[in-house]
Recover the amino acids of this structure.
């Protein structure tokens, strides 16, 4: 199956279902706000290494967490009872994405990716979430927020359960605001243990259809 090469000057994507069996759809293009909004609105996201061209992915099976179904283990419930835990939204987006980058041995978060998602944040299209445990910054996450869909990008932890606490509390806020999903992009055992599940492309596409009516000013 062909992988499409994008034109830097023409903001478009091929039909998402044309992605190969691994989910790779296209190569090239840029990381402009306009292209990223078009990508996420069609279930497409960039993921590539420093020394490779921009690669765009659209897996046919999607792995998501429904905010209302976030799983809180008994050990996490005990942890919440034992500690003062809270989150802040958009405390410092640039700091959070950089921590997500530097806390990993290997990462796809290049200089260009950092700059691109900071531009998304500046346009009210991306969100960072930071958790605090007993008054100290413990962890966080960031992602793209369009309408009632949150597209998770990466997490970091500076303390035990830092990112997990951020995701759990943030999910409760998303549930209160009637969000449809947290798109996890790829499966991990960790996210599955927290309520992640596979859904069909058809169901995922229905969720994306809700974005046709969204107003960026109503984002978190």
């Amino acid at each position: 199956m062909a992988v499409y090469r994008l034109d830097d000057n023409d903001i478009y994507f091929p039909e998402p279902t044309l992605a190969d069996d691994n989910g790779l759809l296209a190569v090239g293009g840029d990381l402009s706000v306009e292209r990223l909004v078009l990508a996420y609105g069609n279930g497409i996201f960039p993921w590539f290494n420093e020394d490779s061209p921009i690669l765009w992915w659209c897996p046919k099976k999607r792995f998501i967490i429904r905010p209302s179904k976030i799983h809180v283990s008994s050990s996490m419930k005990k942890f919440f009872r034992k500690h003062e835990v809270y989150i802040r939204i958009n405390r410092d987006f640039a700091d959070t994405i950089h921590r997500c980058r530097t806390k990993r041995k290997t990462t796809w978060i290049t200089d260009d990716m950092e700059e691109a998602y900071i531009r998304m944040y500046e346009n009210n299209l991306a969100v960072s979430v930071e958790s605090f445990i007993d008054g100290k910054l413990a962890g966080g996450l960031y992602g793209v927020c369009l309408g009632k869909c949150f597209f998770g990008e990466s997490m970091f932890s500076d303390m035990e359960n830092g990112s997990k606490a951020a995701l759990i509390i943030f999910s409760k806020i998303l549930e209160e605001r009637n969000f449809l999903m947290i798109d996890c992009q790829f499966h991990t055992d960790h996210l599955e243990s927290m309520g992640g599940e596979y859904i069909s492309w058809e169901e995922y596409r229905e969720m994306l259809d809700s974005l046709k009516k969204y107003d960026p000013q109503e984002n978190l």
In short: DSSP finds seven helices and eleven strands in the chain. The radius of gyration is 17 Å. Residues 162-176 form the longest helix (15 residues). The chain has a mean pLDDT of 93.
